[in-house]
């Protein structure tokens, strides 16, 4: 969807913010034994670290790798939604274990059980990250981004319809 570097930065900032915030809320809820109003505020403490990390990882490493992996499954001639879903799935497959490792090291106090705690964290996070990205976060951010940066073809069509 982004057409230039500026748009790519904005899109990645938006997507990484919403994904990281929800995943932090989910993990805090798991740690304290349930969801409460305080979780939404507590999440901002971890956001200071995890959002920049997620943005940098996604922007500089994961996006290119995810595209390369996705285009081993789909072709540029496939329907745009199929391409979008394939890229999103690859991003989740890369980001979830990496971000789970970072969260394990920084917040879990795993000690000598770091590998097992990382596996457990990834195991719990992956389904939530997948469904949240595919069905809520991804469509929501793409919708908002599309309103912020309408494509020229759509803008031309809207102008000719309204005139």
From TrEMBL:
Organism: Dorea formicigenerans
Keywords carried by this UniProt record: Membrane, Transmembrane, Transmembrane helix
Transmembrane domains' residue ranges: 9-29, 49-69, 81-103, 123-145
Lineage: Bacteria, Bacillati, Bacillota, Clostridia, Lachnospirales
InterPro entries: DUF2798
Protein name per its UniProtKB record: DUF2798 domain-containing protein
Superkingdom of the source species: Bacteria
Coiled coil regions, renumbered to chain: none
């Amino acid at each position: 969807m982004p057409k230039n570097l500026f748009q790519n930065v904005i899109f990645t900032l938006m997507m990484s913010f919403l994904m990281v915030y929800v995943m932090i809320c989910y993990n805090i809820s798991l740690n304290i034994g349930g969801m409460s109003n305080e979780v939404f505020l507590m999440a901002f403490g971890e956001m200071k670290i995890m959002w920049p990390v997620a943005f940098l990882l996604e922007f500089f490493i994961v996006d290119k790798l995810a595209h390369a992996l996705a285009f081993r499954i789909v072709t540029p001639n496939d329907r745009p939604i199929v391409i979008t879903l394939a890229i999103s799935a690859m991003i989740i497959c890369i980001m979830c274990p990496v971000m789970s490792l970072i969260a394990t090291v920084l917040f879990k106090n795993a000690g000598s059980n770091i590998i097992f705690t990382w596996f457990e964290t990834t195991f719990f996070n992956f389904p939530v990250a997948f469904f949240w990205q595919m069905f809520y976060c991804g469509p929501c951010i793409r919708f908002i981004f599309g309103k912020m940066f309408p494509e020229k073809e759509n803008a031309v069509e809207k102008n000719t319809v309204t005139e």
